Amino acid sequence: MKSAHYPPWVDAALPGGALEARFLDVHRQMQAAMAAGDVRLSQFGKKASARVDELMWRHYVVFWSSDYAAANTACREKNLAECGVCDGLTIFFALNAISPAASPSKAYLYDSWAPMRGEHLLPSEKSITGSYAYLDIENTRRNLSRFGDQVVLNKGFIPEVFAASANPDKLIWLQIDLNSSKPTVESLEFFFDRIEPGGVVLFNSYAWAGYEDTRTAVRSWCEGRGGRLLPLPTGQAIFFKI
Fold first, then answer.
1. The domain containing residue 159 runs over which residues?
2. DSSP assignments along 65-76, one per residue
3. From CA 92, how far away is CA 30, in angstroms rounded?
């Protein structure tokens, strides 16, 4: 995402710019890990470094929302969950936003790491049947190895995977990045009551062209849920649970 305005991370060296400085450091850590071969982003191939730079706004929203949720929830353990993990790029930023010294946390990650099944998709979504066949859970595991047992990988399709997985009792932050409306709603149904007041749900593909059914389903589901939905120009949206 490009803008004629100053992005927030230019304030990293200014008074009060601690969060922005931390974000910029994590962004540089990701670039260094890719350059060293410690992280491989299969979704981007040889253009990974340039794509990660292009995605800084989206990753800043991830980082900011995770930090916000940690600061505004009363629970001691600051657990995260993500439905739709891919190579682990997003959760890398979310976990790094929370200091393990101050707040013990785990990330519960759910993905099929397999081609998308047509029976989970609406007619308007059928064109993506078979997508993401290149994903490999072992690559994601390697990419996130620095977090050790903070990361819990749960392999399977939603909603069946929930019955066979280690699931958190409480959450502060949930990201949903499934590119399909039915699993998105099923994820909300499963996790929403586990999210602490002050926590957030981050929708990754809320306003992407081609996923209008997901946006409609999210807006409908969030009505009357005791919070506010904020759509963002990055295509994401944040639901703040009150």
1. 56-241
2. HHHHHHHH---S
3. 8
Give the pTM.
0.96
Are 196 and 73 contacting, i.e. CB atoms less than 8 angstroms apart? yes
Half-sphere exposure of 192 (CA within 13 A, CB side): 17
Mean pLDDT, all residues of the chain: 95
Give mean pLDDT, residues 195-224.
95
Look at the chain and report how many structural domains it folds into.
1
- Does 79 reside within a domain? yes
Read off the CATH number of the domain in which 168 is found: 3.40.50.150
Q: pLDDT value at position 1? A: 82
Say how many CA atoms lie within 13 Å of 175 toward its Cβ: 29
CA distances 213 to 101, 144, 219, Å, are 41, 32, 10
Give tens-digit pLDDT for 126-178: 999 999 999 999 999 999 999 999 999 999 999 999 999 989 999 999 999 99
Assigned domain for 141 exists: yes
C-alpha 28/C-alpha 221 separation (Å) is: 37
Measure the CA–CA gap between 8 and 1, rounded to whole angstroms: 13
Q: Is residue 180 part of a domain?
A: yes
Answer yes or no: is 8 within a domain: no
